[in-house]
Amino acid sequence: MAPIVRIAQPEDLTMITELMYEYIVGFYRNPAPPVEKVHQLIQTLLDRQLGIQFVAEDDGRPVGFATLFFTFSTMKADKIAVMNDLFVQEPYRDTEWESELFMACKNYCLEQGFANMTWITSIHNTRAQSFFHRMDAIQGKEWVHFSIR
């Protein structure tokens, strides 16, 4: 069956929550955030003002999600989207489900007039890096990423 990728809807709250915990805890081995916080984030994305989520399905079963957050770039003097998450379950990696999920994000950004879509991935996630290269992404070399708590 062909992949279905669509914008998340309110009735997807439970299944997106499950996928997000699989991504946060299972894949990245981070501590589980409180479910209330996860639900609050999903609800924020459902209103599509600060971001948006997409869901990938196989025969009606959720197999992945992607999250875009909306912000601005001073350098471009324009709005940009940050693809904060692109996750598909193990059997769907390097398949058309993953590609379609990525393309849904890319096409949304083009249709909505974003100057660009940007993202980061773990330096250890070489599989994802290979995927992004196949999708014609340009790996940045001009900026160093920092964060603070």
TrEMBL record:
The keyword Nuclease does not apply. It comes from the Bacteria. One of its GO terms (molecular function) is N-acetyltransferase activity. PROSITE patterns: GNAT (PS51186). Keywords: Acyltransferase, Transferase. Residues 3-149 form the N-acetyltransferase domain. Signal peptide: none annotated. InterPro entries: Acyl_CoA_acyltransferase, Diverse_Substrate_AcTransf, GNAT_dom. This is GNAT family N-acetyltransferase. The lineage of its organism: Bacteria, Bacillati, Bacillota, Bacilli, Bacillales.
